């Protein structure tokens, strides 16, 4: 790299289109990545950095912080950054994650920047109401720093003249309501689907799900006060915009169909408390949306604005992510406009104790297994079937914890356990092939294997959970 020409930040900034060629800087290096863009795994996302430094983007998507990426970039080096410019730049570089909250060490990160983590599954199923320390965290971006005193929620009804602005106190003065609801990430259990073939997404185990009580104001009351006529069928969607922003200034956003928001039985809340205390920063302080029965991604945290609209949210996460595809669809032929955004999640279950590969005790010819089951759309779990011999014989698990609400307003998960007989006497069997499947109140059940539901984003991974354990002789 010695002997390469030097460029100033200003010179680099002129190279920000295909025609002028696309230059970026990284530390002291200047790179011409024009020919690299078509092959970049993140698509043309890298163009956000055209004419400037890739560092602010790479710290944002901490995912890029690995040697492999730098090695690739080095092949495109055309020069060095002017010494003076390089110095001022590194001094001004701030880690956008520096004000993220501290997390409990029990959470095992799938990525640190942004922070994404789940607890050990065996601890998760110890409590029907998940303590905040064990509640999985799924952040796409840095956690915004919001002063609750200054907090304002804006509400806009498309076409209406004025918008409404509410403070946290305004919300707290309205009649409040508490619900118990499970939130699950669309990528929960992705690590099992990945075994079929790689997918794009965080490697979640079975613990990107949790159950809590949420207290806040029903969204329908807030919308009614803001002047929404619930019988005006011009409006089809409720869009949510959040306070967390990406490197280009775009905020996290999502939307839900309007019926879910205005139906009293939809139980959608603007929540300011979780388990009886103010929301932790990681979970949306001071206000988040709770859309029970609906995929985590629509439960928008750090809520800034609500828009009543004819259209869905235009955000990346609504339009080009969190959608299902056939196992035959690959990235080249995936048409996101043809696939509906995930809302209600399908029925699923998982064994949380023991783990795959464990060696466990056999007591009176039986082994003890524990886990959870849940279904979206307010459906209740009516049965959990378990097998310890690869599906030859089945047993019905005991329900250990379940709330009494009726479908389709049954928002919480079900915790179950089962003491199942195993054959550890014969010489050929020193292990058990354990599997679980749940049945919900629509009598929907889980697909048998991941091969048949594999999809490019690794979402909706609800096949039978299968593990193999060794039996102590
Ligand atoms: N809201 C905002 N503003 N930003 C986010 O990154 N992540 C979503 C959702 N709401 C997200 C968000 C996703 S994908 C999930 S699964 C849930 O929040 C996770 O909620 P939790 O972190 O409280 O468990
Ligand atoms: Mo998610």
How are the strands ordered across the major sheet?
1-5-4-3-2
Q: Could you say what the CATH architecture of the largest domain is?
A: Alpha-Beta Complex
Shape: globular
Number of discrete domains: 3
The CATH class label of the largest domain is: Alpha Beta
Name the CATH superfamily assignment of the largest domain: Oxidoreductase, molybdopterin-binding domain
User: What fraction, in percent, of the residue positions are helical?
Assistant: 10-25%
- Major sheet characteristics: 5 strands, mixed
Uncertain parts: none
Arithmetic mean pLDDT = 92
Q: What's the total number of strands?
A: 27
The proportion of residues in beta strands is: 25-35%
**Estimated radius of gyration:** 25 Å
- First-residue to last-residue Cα separation: 63 Å
| CATH level-3 fold name of the largest domain | Sulfite Oxidase, Chain A, domain 2
What ions, cofactors and ligands are bound?
ligand MTE, molybdenum atom
Number of helices: 10
Task: Provide the structure class.
Answer: alpha+beta
What is the strand and helix layout of this fold?
Elements: E1 6-7, H1 9-13, E2 16-17, E3 21-26, E4 29-32, H2 55-60, H3 67-74, E5 77-81, H4 83-92, E6 108-111, E7 116-118, H5 121-124, E8 137-138, E9 152-157, E10 164-167, H6 168-173, E11 177-184, H7 190-193, E12 209-218, H8 219-225, E13 237-245, E14 251-257, H9 258-262, E15 269-274, E16 277-278, E17 288-290, E18 303-309, H10 316-319, E19 348-353, E20 359-360, E21 366-374, E22 381-387, E23 395-396, E24 398-401, E25 414-421, E26 431-440, E27 465-471
Parallel strand pairs: 1-5, 9-18, 20-27
Antiparallel strand pairs: 2-3, 3-4, 4-5, 6-7, 7-8, 9-10, 11-12, 12-15, 13-14, 13-18, 15-16, 15-17, 19-21, 21-25, 22-23, 22-26, 24-25, 26-27
The structure holds ligand MTE and molybdenum atom.
């Amino acid at each position: 790299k010695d002997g390469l020409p030097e460029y100033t930040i200003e010179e680099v900034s002129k190279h920000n289109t295909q025609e002028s060629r696309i230059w970026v800087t990284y530390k002291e290096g200047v790179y011409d990545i024009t020919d690299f863009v078509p092959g970049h795994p993140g698509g043309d996302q890298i163009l956000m950095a055209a004419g400037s430094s890739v560092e602010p983007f790479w710290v944002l998507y901490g995912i890029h912080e690995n040697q492999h990426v730098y090695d690739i970039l080095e092949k495109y080096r055309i020069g060095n950054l002017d010494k003076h410019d390089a110095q001022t730049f590194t001094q001004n570089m701030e880690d956008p994650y520096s004000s993220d909250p501290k997390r409990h060490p029990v959470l095992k990160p799938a990525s640190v920047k942004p922070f994404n983590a789940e607890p050990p599954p065996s601890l998760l199923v110890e409590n029907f109401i998940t303590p905040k320390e064990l509640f999985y965290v799924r952040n796409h971006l840095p956690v915004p720093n919001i002063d609750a005193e200054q907090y304002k929620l804006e509400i806009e009804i498309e076409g209406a003249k004025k918008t409404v602005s509410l403070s946290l106190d305004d919300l707290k003065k309205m009649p409040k309501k508490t619900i118990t609801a499970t939130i699950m990430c669309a990528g929960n259990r992705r690590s099992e689907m990945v075994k079929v073939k790689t997918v794009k997404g965080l490697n979640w185990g079975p613990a990107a799900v949790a159950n809590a009580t949420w207290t806040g104001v029903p969204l329908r009351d807030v919308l009614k006060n803001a002047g929404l006529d619930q019988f005006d069928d011009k409006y089809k969607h409720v869009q949510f915009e959040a306070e967390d922003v990406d490197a280009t200034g775009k905020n996290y956003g999502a939307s839900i169909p309007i019926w879910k928001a205005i139906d009293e039985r939809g139980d959608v809340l603007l929540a300011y408390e979780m388990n009886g205390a103010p929301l932790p920063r990681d979970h949306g302080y001071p206000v988040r949306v709770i859309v029970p029965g609906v995929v985590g991604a629509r439960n928008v945290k750090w809520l800034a604005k609500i828009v009543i609209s004819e259209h869905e949210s235009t955000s990346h996460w609504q339009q080009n992510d969190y959608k299902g595809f056939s196992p035959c669809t690959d990235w080249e032929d995936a048409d996101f406009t043809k696939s509906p955004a995930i809302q209600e999640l399908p029925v699923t279950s998982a064994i949380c104790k023991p783990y795959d590969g464990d060696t466990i005790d056999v007591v009176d010819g039986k082994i003890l297994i524990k886990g959870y089951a849940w279904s979206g759309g307010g459906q209740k779990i009516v049965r959990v079937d378990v097998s310890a011999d690869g599906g030859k014989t089945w047993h019905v698990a005991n329900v250990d914890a379940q709330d009494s609400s009726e479908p389709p307003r049954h928002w919480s998960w079900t915790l179950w356990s089962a003491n199942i007989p195993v054959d550890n006497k014969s010489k050929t069997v020193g292990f058990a092939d354990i599997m679980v499947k749940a049945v919900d109140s629509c009598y929907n059940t889980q697909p048998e294997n991941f091969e048949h539901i594999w999809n490019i984003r690794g979402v909706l991974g609800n096949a039978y959970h299968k593990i193999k354990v060794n039996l102590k002789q």
